Amino acid sequence: MINLVKGTHDVILDEAKKYEAVESVFRDLASLYGFKEFRTPILEHSELFQRSVGDSSDIVRKEMYTFLDKGERSLTLRPELTAGIMRSIVNNKLLALDEGPVKAFYLGPCFRYERPQAGRYRQFNQFGIEMVGINDIYRDVEVITFGYHALKVMGFENLTLKINTLGDKETREKYNRALKEYFSKHIDSMCGDCKERFNLNVLRILDCKIKEDQEIVKNAPKIQDYLSDNAKDRFERVLESLKELNIEYEVDQNLVRGLDYYSDVVFEFHYTSKKGVNYGAIGAGGHYSNLFRELGGNKDLEGCGVAFGIERIVSVLEDDGSLEKIKNSVNVYIMPSSDVTRSFASLLAKELRTNGASTDICYENKSMKSMLKKADKLSAIVGIILNDDLLKENKTIVKNLVTTEQEEVSTEHLLDRVFDILVSEIKKKEAEDHEHEEDCDCEECHHHHEE
Ligand code: HAM
How big is the CA angle at 80 (ends 90 and 130), to the nearest 5 degrees? Predict the structure, then answer.
């Protein structure tokens, strides 16, 4: 028997369905936000990552699967996708005409030689989006909103969005000097990694996970005190805009991210499952300003993106028992009672799906009671009951499954009525979630009021 390579895993049978469920939430939402799919190669020239993710990052220094191919070229299995997307945008001259932004989404395997543990693999999958050719903070906010929205759709409740700014070039130069000065007094007692970081990129020390070092990091200068006016203004406007959108966040001044290409806003989504398992950040990203030029672009074009670890999301949702819900949820459930009504049901489902309502049909010969039970399991909002007698008169029964009210509706008005109910129930649900926050005393909502 030949075993799996350490840090890799099979996704098979029912497990694959779970992945599909999470991935389709991302894909659907990305289309809704106007992103288009990019499929770039898994193999890239090693130089791509050295120049983007950065020579001083742990990823490039220690974690890349790099090898010489038979033609003696140094190639690397991609550790992330942002660099490849940017390379593709430059190679294909997608921004040559200044028609920005390019809005790309992607899904696929990445490789990092890390120590395997819960939620940490050597081959894992990322879903991400990149928005390139931007200079407006509202684009950064759109990327964060996308991430927040996707995770909420999947049922993440107590999500923590940690956010920070790395400022602009001017900020980082000043801040680096301040950090160098501070850490030069402590570096002798710090870990070997920090000693290397001190020389390569002192900012990285803030990310050290070693307890004794963290004590020293606690008292290090804070970037907020070194922000240029411009960087400060940008960050404040991002926070302001998130507040307006009701997106909760926590400013974390030690959040520096493990990749070198960031400037200005950076962020991570954290979540601990109800059982208390923390799988690390489930998604992360930020703004970048030099990447386009660094990879051969001929102008200064900025971008912002976020990527999510699919394995981590599946694990957390599974721990919380929320996966069934996304896997199964539909807007409309059609319940026909005979072959005649079943053929009408197919036509109806086609209409509903074409108009964007996710729809399922019970084709199995089941009692009304068990069909309604199934509708509940699917978290359907509207049920459509079809029986021969009514259908002969061009009538159906539409049941609002949230309020349990039902009414006879003519086939002519069926689509309109179904969408009326869908829209009003979805709005009601949003209002309820919001009200809950206002009345509630729980820690999360309380935190939200204070902001
Ligand atoms: P990253 O923080 O290195 O950022 O990775 C993004 C996400 O990928 C992490 O939050 C985590 O969920 C997942 N991930 C990373 N390493 C592993 C692993 N070994 N096993 C399982 N999951 C993992 C980036 O990769 C950037 N390209 C994000 C970005 C996009 N920034 C701008 N645009």
Answer: 50
